[in-house]
């Protein structure tokens, strides 16, 4: 009695993206080699010029070309009909308009920058002139030894003048209020009563 072998035949593979990364890489490598082999056979059998460019899932690039990829691509591009002249004119006009607008903005920004630079230079020049002419108005830590000595002497002289002026004012006030001819109402003073004391109001 002979045994019969049952065969299920070749199963049809469902064409869809593979999920397993390892299987995907293996399949890509095998199919790419097969594709390049078929392209090579087409060139040999038919004398066809072929160019193939393939990017792998990992972004690596593979190519095959006969006689080479660049020659085939250049030949293809030379046969592509040019775009409509009207379309090219519109594209060029739009490009020129954009360039003019950008140039105008750049010119305006440059003018503003130059103006601000001139203002800054003028202010710096005025500041240096003021510092040179009125150096005592500068911060003390910016003065040299000679300027500090002069500044110190000026402060001492000013202190003496202030004391002298205070003494004159006190003497004048005493003599003024003790004068029998003094009438306080004529100078805006209020009579406070008592021993004839008066408080000045807005005089000094």
Can you give keywords for this protein?
4 helices; mainly alpha; two-stranded antiparallel ribbon; disordered C terminus; 204 residues
- Main pleated-sheet profile: 2 strands, antiparallel
Number of strands: 4
Shape: elongated
In helices, the fraction of residues equals: 55-70%
CA-atom Rg in angstroms: 51 Å
Q: Name the average pLDDT.
A: 77
Strand content: 5-15%
Strand order in the largest sheet = 1-2
Q: State the low-pLDDT regions, or none.
A: 191-204
Q: Ends: how far apart?
A: 144 Å
Summed up, the helix count is: 4
SSE succession: HEEHHHEE
Helix/sheet category: mainly alpha
How would you describe this structure to a colleague?
There is one protein chain. This protein is mainly alpha-helical and 204 residues long. Helices cover 59% and strands 8% of the residues. It is built from four helices and four strands. The strands form two sheets. The chain has a two-stranded antiparallel sheet with strand order 1-2. Strands 3-4 form a two-stranded antiparallel sheet. It is elongated and about 140 Å long.
Protein topology:
Blueprint: H1 21-46, E1 50-55, E2 61-66, H2 69-79, H3 85-133, H4 145-178, E3 190-191, E4 198-199
Antiparallel strand pairs: 1-2, 3-4
């Amino acid at each position: 009695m002979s045994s019969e072998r049952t065969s299920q035949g070749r199963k049809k593979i469902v064409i869809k993206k593979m999920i397993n990364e390892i299987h995907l890489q293996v399949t890509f490598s095998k199919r790419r080699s097969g594709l390049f082999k078929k392209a090579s056979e087409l060139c040999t059998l038919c004398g066809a010029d072929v160019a193939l460019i393939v990017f792998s899932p990992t972004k690596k690039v593979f190519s095959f070309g006969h006689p080479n990829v660049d020659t085939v691509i250049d030949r293809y591009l030379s046969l592509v009909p040019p775009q409509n002249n009207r379309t090219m004119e519109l594209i060029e006009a739009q490009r020129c308009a954009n360039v003019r607008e950008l140039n105008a903005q750049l010119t305006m920004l440059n003018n503003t920058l130059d103006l601000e630079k001139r203002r800054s230079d003028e202010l710096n020049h005025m500041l240096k002139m003021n510092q040179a002419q009125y150096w005592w108005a500068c911060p003390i830590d910016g003065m040299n030894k000679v300027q500090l000595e002069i500044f110190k002497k000026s402060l001492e002289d000013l202190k003496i003048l202030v004391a002298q002026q205070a003494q004159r004012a006190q003497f004048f006030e005493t003599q003024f209020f003790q004068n029998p001819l003094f009438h306080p109402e004529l100078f805006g003073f209020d009579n406070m009563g008592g021993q004839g004391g008066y408080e000045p109001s807005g005089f000094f």
